[in-house]
């Protein structure tokens, strides 16, 4: 079943809202800023080829379609930045303090409240389209034991949150940041991302190829790489999948 609200397509069940959004982009003309929202995904996709699990009707499962045709392909990490910042802002507006665990997991203390999966297509040297998939734990109260460290808004605040209203609010916050990006306000976006970055300028443990080492996040490279400085003052850059946080 498919219902349409203003800028939001609501589906009762789908394999993955990211898949549906990608089909919309290739099948027919769709507006910048369209959201695909599903009550249930039977093949929800996460980062690193993981599944994204969510009980029916409990959480926000949505994909926002963007056409960042102004954005040079090497700068696509800015999409991760603006969507992550938007999540933090929504949570702040709802009195929840959260941080961004690089590259784009949203954490409340040491627990994950939302995940983001961005898929892009490139045309020449710039982006053509992007699908920003958001899995945001809103009302689910129990999670399966094999998930590492999930948490929901319901578990933090003790009250339910309207999923469609949240989608619409988040959409507005992201579109506002998308405009900032289009206007080239990169410095502002960078500083907001760093301000909310989990473990920024803190000593902590990381793991690469089964080796645990201490490092301090000192920055994010131009292409979104994590910059870690060691106790000797040497800085290395890491790509996603190259490094793990030891929590
Ligand atoms: C992660 O692994 O942290 C990213 C999870 C992203 C899940 C969302 S749910 C809506 C959209 N559709 C998908 O299949 N995945 C994203």
List descriptors.
single chain, 247 residues, alpha+beta, five-stranded antiparallel beta sheet, 13 strands, binds biotin
Q: What report would you give on this structure?
A:
With 247 residues, the protein is α+β, with helices and mostly antiparallel strands. Helices cover 26% and strands 33% of the residues. The protein is built from 5 helices and 13 strands. It has helices spanning 17-27, 77-93, 153-157, 163-182, 186-195; strands at residues 2-5, 8-14, 35-41, 60-66, 99-101, 105-108, 111-123, 126-136, 203-208, 211-220, 226-229, 235-238, 244-245. The strands form 2 sheets. The protein has an 8-stranded mixed β-sheet with strand order 1-2-3-4-8-7-6-5, sandwiched between helices. It has a 5-stranded antiparallel β-sheet with strand order 12-11-10-9-13, with no helix packed on it. Strand 9 and strand 10 (211-220) form a beta hairpin. Helix 2 (77-93) crosses helix 4 (163-182) and helix 2 (77-93) packs across helix 5 (186-195). The site of biotin has 20 residues, from helix 1, strand 4, strand 7 and strand 8.
* Count of strand segments: 13
> Main beta sheet: strand number and arrangement?
8 strands, mixed
- Average per-residue pLDDT, rounded, comes to 96
How many alpha or pi helices? 5
Which molecules are bound in this entry?
biotin
The 3D shape can be described as: globular
Identify the quaternary structure here: single chain
Alpha-beta content class: alpha+beta
Which stretches are poorly predicted, pLDDT < 50 over at least 5 residues? none
Strand content: 25-35%
């Amino acid at each position: 079943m498919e219902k349409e609200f203003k800028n939001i397509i609501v589906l009762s069940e789908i394999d993955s809202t990211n898949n549906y959004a990608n089909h919309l982009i290739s099948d027919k003309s769709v507006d910048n800023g369209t959201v695909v929202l599903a009550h249930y995904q039977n093949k929800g996709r996460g980062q690193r080829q993981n599944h994204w699990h969510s009980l029916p009707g409990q959480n926000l499962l949505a994909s926002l379609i963007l056409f960042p045709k102004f954005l040079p392909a090497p700068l696509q990490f800015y999409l991760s930045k603006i969507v992550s910042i938007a999540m933090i802002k929504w949570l702040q507006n709802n009195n929840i303090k959260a941080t961004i665990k690089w590259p784009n997991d949203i954490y409340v203390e040491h627990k994950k409240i939302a995940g983001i999966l961005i898929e892009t297509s490139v045309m020449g040297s710039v982006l053509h389209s992007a699908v920003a998939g958001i899995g945001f734990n809103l009302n689910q109260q129990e999670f399966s034991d094999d998930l590492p460290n999930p948490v929901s808004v319901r578990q933090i605040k003790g009250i339910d949150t309207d999923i469609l209203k949240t989608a619409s609010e988040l959409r507005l916050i992201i579109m506002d940041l998308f405009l900032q990006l289009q206007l080239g306000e990169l410095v502002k976006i960078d500083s907001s991302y760093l301000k909310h970055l989990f473990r920024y300028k803190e000593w902590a443990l990381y793991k690469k190829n089964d080796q645990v080492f201490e490092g301090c996040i000192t920055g994010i490279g131009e292409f979104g790489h994590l910059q870690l400085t060691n106790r000797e003052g040497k800085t290395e850059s890491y790509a996603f999948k190259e490094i793990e946080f030891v929590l």
